[in-house]
Amino acid sequence: MDNAHIREIEEPAGHAGSPLASKATEAEEKEDWKSYTIFLLKLVIVVLIFRTFIFTSFNIPSESMMPRLLVGDYLFSQKWSYGYSRYSLPFNVDFGNGRVLARQPDRGDIVIFKHPIDETDYIKRVIGLPGDTVQMIDGIVHIDGEAVSLEQIEDFVIPVHGDRGCRYAQFEVRSEDGSAICQYPQYRETLPEGVSYNIIDLGENFQDNTPPVTVPEDRLFLMGDNRDNSLDSRFPAEPGRGIGLVPQNNLVAEASFMYWSTDGTAEWLKPWTWFTAARWSRMFRGI
């Protein structure tokens, strides 16, 4: 038997181009697609679990929490901090009027919650807990008749970008390099438990004096840190306006840390502005 005939006999039955080889290739491709689909499904499930029970993202739309939070800040917020209710879970999962694994916030916490009337997302600081009597007297918070500590510190300064000027023209000044800045009076407020944070108080305003309000069970008295630019528990709950005393069931999450911040000057068609608009020093900071 010559060599050519030997090679012909020893040629594998499923050589390239044969029906068996084609079927094997198709089977491998189907297996690859199956594995890829399973991977995507697992990824979707992990993301859903993450967003449902662990963290959610929130961006700051207004100046009501200046100086701590600025317009254009993006936050991750802990969903497990206060338990879960229909307000903190997606797809309107109904828990009735209660919370699962409920925990009361601490004074000074920054919380994300649903507005009691229109159920839009808001972010404020916890000032009054159930049983507290809260009152504003001459711009100073009083809890159970005692004034919280308030100390004036250096002014808060923020650059003016584009058409976003200062809310009140008298606080817009020029810096040493000639650029426009907003320069706001800033104070250090300290709650009875020792939690301290900075606030902005622009001076006398009608919301600086309020009647005493005793916070009922399962409610919270919340305020913005920008005291003269915040519709909060000092005002009755109205759609898009005041929030009144917020039910604890409306809590969504506790603000945790900042992962991105932009000054609003970026343009989609100019990719380099994505980087020049970024406020790098504010990223990956705890709240």
Automatic annotation (TrEMBL):
Keywords: Hydrolase, Membrane, Protease, Transmembrane, Transmembrane helix. It is an enzyme of class 3 (hydrolase). Belongs to the peptidase S26 family. It catalyses: Cleavage of hydrophobic, N-terminal signal or leader sequences from secreted and periplasmic proteins. The active site is at 64, 124. It is found in: Membrane. Gene3D superfamilies: Umud Fragment, subunit A. It holds the Pfam family Peptidase_S26. Its EC number is 3.4.21.89. This is Signal peptidase I. Residues 35-260 form the Peptidase S26 domain. It is a single-pass type II membrane protein. PANTHER family: CHLOROPLAST PROCESSING PEPTIDASE, SIGNAL PEPTIDASE I. The keyword Aminoacyl-tRNA synthetase does not apply. GO terms for molecular function: serine-type endopeptidase activity; signal peptidase activity. It comes from Aurantiacibacter atlanticus. The lineage of its organism: Bacteria, Pseudomonadati, Pseudomonadota, Alphaproteobacteria, Sphingomonadales. The chain crosses the membrane at residues 36-58. One of its GO terms (cellular component) is membrane.
